[in-house]
């Protein structure tokens, strides 16, 4: 598949195009251009390293939405076995913006729940661009309560620009469905690990985002609103999105510094779509490690620590809060 390059990656794209041209010339001629190819490869590697070491928050937000970024259904076969997808909320219907089902992490039975966007136009529409309706969050609630009943750890994967704000969703109780999930997750008697794969925005992310651990991929984002939405409110123009992204502290490393994220999983140079297998391997290792730690706790200890975690989210010692 041809790699899609973002605007800030164009210098890298141009060098890679030259490299491909050199390789074609070398294959069709008797001239030895190995040294020139190696020089260009080294230049590309250096430029890539420099570019990704100095990304702005807005550029990271663009990477979190990259059209070729791996989605949940790309990670599942790379990280889990025996995945069996469940459908429907038993009230209204099935919402394909949220995928859920049982699987195994190594030999450990687990419950997987997460947002799923689409690749082509047809799938994007079918999955509503990863923006879940109330039935999606009620499906997630049903699966989490099933996991509790059968003592299965819950692994939630977040990748959405927000819950669907349409009239149908409002009519069917979008806010209530998300609020109900917050209550259920805060009290669920089984370990919950939440991972942000791409963008995690607004209540759409929070609707499956309460747990015992919060992980983020290096070039993912997590915020109360999209940069464009924030800019439209504060500056009355979505064109101010880059400034909004800088102000919102939405990147993984910044949120880790603020104590809101437990661990950041490194991505390869060029982001996750350049090597999904490597990212899946790293995420798999972290999930196994985190789950082993959580399973050492009794249910009472687990719930106490989760409650304490929720009470301290966003609190800083220099504010003088005492929870």
Task: Please tag this protein with its features.
single chain; 323 residues; alpha/beta; 8-stranded mixed β-sheet; 14 helices; globular; disordered C terminus
**Share of helix, binned:** 40-55%
Mean pLDDT: 92
Shape: globular
Number of DSSP strand runs: 8
Distance between the termini: 51 Å
Quaternary structure type: single chain
Unreliable spans: 317-323
Describe this entry's structure for a reader:
- The radius of gyration is 21 Å and the shape is globular.
- 48% of the residues lie in helices and 15% in strands.
- Strands 1, 2, 3, 4, 5, 6, 7 and 8 form an 8-stranded mixed sheet that branches.
- It starts with 9 loop residues before the first helix and ends in an 11-residue tail after the last helix.
- The longest helix has 20 residues, at 34-53.
- It is an alpha/beta fold and 323 residues long.
- Strand 5, helix 9 (202-206) and strand 6 form a beta-alpha-beta unit.
- The chain has helices at 10-28, 34-53, 57-64, 72-79, 121-126, 134-149, 167-171, 174-187, 202-206, 227-234, 241-248, 252-257, 276-294, 299-312; strands spanning 81-86, 98-105, 108-115, 154-160, 192-201, 213-217, 221-223, 263-265.
- It is built from 14 helices and 8 strands.
